[in-house]
Each structure stands twice: as C-alpha cells, then as structure tokens.
Amino acid sequence: MPPTVLNSVFNFVQFWDGRAKNLQEQALGPITNHVEMGHDFNNLIPKMEKTHYNDKFKAIYKDGITPYNITNAIAEFEKTLITPNTPFDKYLMGDNKAITKDQKEGYEIFKNQGCIACHHGINIGGNLYAKFGVISQLKSDSKGRLEVTQNELDKYYFKVPTLRNIELTAPYLHDGRIDELEGVVKFMAHYQLGKSLDENEVKKIVSFLKSLTGKINSY
C-alpha cells in the first residue's frame, strides 16, 4: 500500500523502505516505473512542450521542462498537502476543550502503553525506522529496508507512518492487511509492544487517533 501523501513533507525519508530521501526523489519513481505511469522523459517532455505547460514551466524555470523541473514542481505541490490545526494540535496549543474526555484519556493510554516511542514529533511518526514484528515475528512479502541496503539487519524494518489523518487513510500497514482502526491498534499493541489492550483502552486510543484528523491545507 502506498503511504499517504498528506503531510509527507514532514517525513524524514519517503516510501516505506526509505529509498527516496525527499519528495523530489519520490516523485521521480512513479513517473518512470513501468507498473505505474511508465513514462520515458525523452518522449514525455516533447509532448508536454506542445501543451500549456510549456509556458507555465518557462515562467518559473529558465530551462523550461526538464526531468528535474517536473519532479521539483510535483514536490513543491506536495509540500502544500498538509493538515494543520487538528483538534489535537489545538489542544497542545492550550485549548483544553479542543478534544473530548475520551480523547484525552486515549492520549494518556497511547503514551503510557509505549506507542509514543515510535509515533512522535510533528508528524506523529515518519521520523524513524522500526521493525515490523518486534515482539512476535511476522511474515511480509516486502522485506523493508533490506531491499534497499541488502543488509540482513534491516530485514522487516519500515519507516514508521504518520498518524495524522489515520482515520481517513485505511487500509493500514505497509501491505494494507488491516481495514479498521480498532484492528490495527490491537495488532500493533500485540506485535510491537507485547501487550493486550482491553476494549475500553482500544476505544479510547481510537478516539484519540481521530483527533489527529485535519483539513487539507493546499494552495
């Protein structure tokens, strides 16, 4: 499953396996990948030069339409896809009424159970790699960082995803194996933390996660 593009500018690397160091590198992959867009820049650019994009690019870039400028433009657009001022953001900024009692309690459980060890920072994730299946071994078709580094120590290590807008970005995990928030909370507690949460704890964590939903701030 592709990671959400929302708030991706705050990730320390791009893609689940971190093979792109920034948004511009990330933009290049799908354009030329034969199973995605399958373009060849030698063919794509002459076609774009016959459209209104030619004047638009020349107005911004001295050398007009080039592979670098195409991916730069995409990356600059993606930087606008942020969702600030969520209820939880407002709560952190001092508005005690921005989130509900259940959401506050869910946040405390989230912290006390150890979820915050991986999901922290401005993006509530997206700033480190973590092993998939810390407590109990899990099977995955993707080998994570191993596929990039060829180092066995990186097997099943993936970029920790952002939790911003997680309410809206199902299915979950790098392979989309879980469809519901409740299910992924239980799954992560068991396999990553070695804990079994009761239904009330799960409900309150999910309530907290929904406080991380914001509106797209695209210009």
Can you walk me through this structure?
The longest helix has 13 residues, at 181-193. The protein has helices at 23-32, 41-48, 53-60, 67-78, 87-92, 101-112, 146-149, 181-193, 199-210, and strands at 129-131, 157-159. It folds into 2 domains: 8-78, Cytochrome Bc1 Complex, Chain D, domain 2; 87-210, Orthogonal Bundle (Cytochrome Bc1 Complex, Chain D, domain 2), CATH 1.10.760. It has 219 residues and is an all-alpha fold. The chain has a two-stranded antiparallel sheet with strand order 1-2. It is 39% helix and 3% strand. The chain has 9 helices and 2 strands; from the N terminus they run H-H-H-H-H-H-E-H-E-H-H. It starts with 22 loop residues before the first helix and ends in a 9-residue tail after the last helix. Helix 8 (181-193) packs across helix 9.
Can you summarize the main beta sheet?
2 strands, antiparallel
Q: Give me the strand/helix succession.
A: HHHHHHEHEHH
Number of domain units: 2
Average pLDDT across residues?
Answer: 95
Class from secondary-structure proportions: mainly alpha
- Unreliable stretches, pLDDT < 50, 5 or more residues? none
CATH class of the largest domain: Mainly Alpha
Give the overall shape, derived from the CA principal axes.
Answer: globular
| CATH architecture level-2 label of the largest domain | Orthogonal Bundle
Number of H/I helices: 9
How far apart are the first and last residues' alpha carbons, in Å? 26 Å
Range of strand content: under 5%
In the sheet with the most strands, the strands line up as: 1-2
Q: What integer value in Å does the Rg equal?
A: 20 Å
Task: Report the strand count.
Answer: 2
Name the CATH superfamily classification of the largest domain: Cytochrome c-like domain
Question: Helix fraction?
Answer: 25-40%
The quaternary structure here is single chain
Stated plainly, the CATH topology of the largest domain is called Cytochrome Bc1 Complex, Chain D, domain 2
